[in-house]
Design brief:
By secondary structure, the protein is an alpha/beta fold. The protein folds into two domains: 248 residues, Aminopeptidase (3-Layer(aba) Sandwich), CATH 3.40.630; 114 residues, 2-Layer Sandwich (Alpha-Beta Plaits). It is built from ten helices and 16 strands. The strands form four sheets. The protein has a six-stranded mixed sheet. The protein has a four-stranded antiparallel sheet with strand order 10-11-9-12.
């Protein structure tokens, strides 16, 4: 069975898999059926009532490079000029929710694997497609411990996040936190009879903004960051507020980890002694990722250069599932046909020519690495 990258990408876009939502299981079932029809063995790893990962493979004992992607998308942003779930080709670009991030890459991977098997039916081909990447990465966390059970000769993962076909070998980590401060309400004309939670919260945030970013600079990723993204507090203009809440987004660069940044933030919080009614709750935490200098990455760089692609290893500011796989000792690189500037925004799209180039690159890597 021949498969068209464009047709498969359009079919995937037509299946709504927004996260959060209740439809991620539907796209996993659909794609599982497609992969089985193409002759792959498919393990449907259902880990909740609404979510499922897919392992798909031929000759898994020979797979040295595993092609990975996520099946979910973010919800459509305001401002779409067309139906996000109706794929449309306009002037060489495929439009639709997930076209860039990252249903187009998944289609290119599957087409590359299928074509590779037509050239050599004994070659090893392996895929891992996960759920819930856009919110909690629960799919990757569930799948990662099982990867080496299936692919015992595996050397690295290739994740198809949008890189505009650049070679990404590192990316920032993230630590998100919620600061809460309790105060005592009073009439605003006699503030001394209360305790202003907003004032305390602002002073704590000011100290964190000044002291909560390590003095580091990574050659590919730049400096780490700390940003306050949401603030809530108070109930009326003439009442001293008795509560304060702030959401904080921190981006990390090597060699720091989420634990080292947590320690820094908690130390700053402890040093603020004007109130004890304060707490910091950490939510999403993922260390930055930097691929080890394995020879396979140098080989991939040479192949990309021979194809006229940007082969210079570079970094990305966004997250991928790479740190989760690295916790199992599996290094990753990131190469995808989408461009991050078109992701998570109205009228998301990907160039059809980039889909074709991605398929060609993925096929060359499969044939090179998984042939013995």
């Amino acid at each position: 069975m021949n498969i068209s990258v464009l047709d498969l990408a359009a079919s995937l876009i037509s299946v709504d898999s927004t996260n959060p939502g209740a439809l991620e299981l539907e796209i996993a079932d659909f794609l599982g059926d497609v992969l089985e029809e193409l002759g792959f063995h498919v393990d449907r790893q259902k880990y909740s009532d609404l979510r499922m990962n897919l392992f798909a493979y031929k000759h898994p004992e020979r797979v040295k490079i595993l092609l990975c992607g996520h099946l979910d998308t973010v919800p459509p942003a305001e401002g779409w000029k067309r139906d996000p779930s109706t794929p449309k080709v306009v002037r060489g670009r495929l439009y639709g929710l997930g076209s860039c991030d990252m249903k187009g890459a998944i289609a290119a991977m599957i087409a590359a694997g299928s074509e590779s098997l037509k050239e050599d039916e004994e070659i090893g081909v392996g895929f891992l497609f996960t759920s819930d990447e856009e919110v909690g990465m629960s799919g990757a966390k569930f799948a990662a411990p099982k990867i080496r059970d299936v692919f015992k000769a595996l050397k690295l993962c290739l994740i198809g996040e949008p890189t505009d076909l650049r070679l990404i070998t590192c990316h920032k980590g993230v630590l998100r936190a919620t600061l809460r401060v309790k105060g005592v309400a009073s009439h605003s004309s006699i503030p001394e009879s209360g305790s202003n939670a907003v004032h305390h919260g602002i002073r704590i945030l000011d100290k964190m903004l000044r002291e909560g970013v390590p003095d580091l600079e990574h050659p590919l990723l730049g400096r780490p960051t700390l940003q306050v993204t949401i603030i809530k507090g108070g109930v009326a203009e003439n009442i001293i507020p008795d509560s304060f809440e702030a959401k904080i987004d921190m981006r990390l660069v090597p060699p720091e980890t989420e634990e080292s940044r947590k320690s820094l933030i908690l130390r700053i919080l402890d040093e603020y002694e004007e109130t004890d009614a304060k707490e910091m709750k950490f939510t999403l935490a993922l260390s930055p990722y930097e691929a080890p200098p394995i020879p396979e990455i140098a080989t991939i760089s040479r192949i990309m250069k021979s194809m006229g692609l940007n082969s210079q290893p570079s970094g990305a500011p966004y997250l991928t599932e790479a740190p989760i796989y690295w916790m199992q000792g599996i290094p990753s690189i990131v190469i995808g046909p989408g461009d991050i500037k078109y992701a998570h925004k109205p009228d998301e799209s990907v160039y059809i020519s980039k889909l074709a180039s991605a398929k060609k690159l993925y096929k060359r890597l499969i044939l090179l690495f998984n042939s013995s």
